[in-house]
Amino acid sequence: MNNEILAYNNKQTDDEKPICDILAKTISAALPDAENKIWHGHPVWFLDGNPIVGYSKLKSCVRLLFWSGQSFDEPALQKEGTFMAADVRYTSEAQINPEDLDRWLIKARDIQWDYKNLVKRKGKLERLR
User: Fold this and answer.
1) Which helix (H) or strand (E) holds 108?
2) Of 12, 16, 44, 121, which has the fewest CB atoms closer than 10 Å, so is most exposed?
3) Domain map (residue ranges) of the chain
4) Helix 3-10 crosses helix 16-30 at what angle (to 10 degrees)?
5) Would you write out the chain's pLDDT as a tens digit for each of its 129 residues?
6) Given 3.40.50.11440, 3.40.309.10, 3.40.50.2000, 3.90.1150.200, which CATH number is that of 3-110?
7) Is 99 strand, coil or helix?
8) In this structure, what is the dihedral angle of CA atoms 34, 123, 80, 55, given to the nearest 10 degrees?
């Protein structure tokens, strides 16, 4: 895993760091071919240059974001933003359901919208898979 992500996790509070560590470890294991880095200040995993999943510290929680998550048909994921992203928010590591997370990560690999070319397509998303 990228050392910048480890540094990001280490900067979190005692409550948030375990959440970030679990997410980073699980995402990296599920997406071993994904590039991972700090992007716009937060850990993000990419497949072929396309953002797939990432997490960020918000004021009151850690948000796990799937860029194509609205297409996953998963009620626990909430619509985020104006495109196809969906998220779930955690305030403790006990809230992380490993089976849900594993299933979402499989879907994240299999269901993708082309965010990489969003600007080139003038804001129009196209489905890749």
Assistant:
1) helix 98-110
2) 121
3) 3-110
4) 160
5) 789 999 999 999 999 999 999 999 999 999 999 999 999 999 999 998 999 999 999 999 999 999 999 999 999 999 998 788 999 999 999 999 999 999 999 999 998 766 666 556 556 656 665
6) 3.90.1150.200
7) helix
8) 30
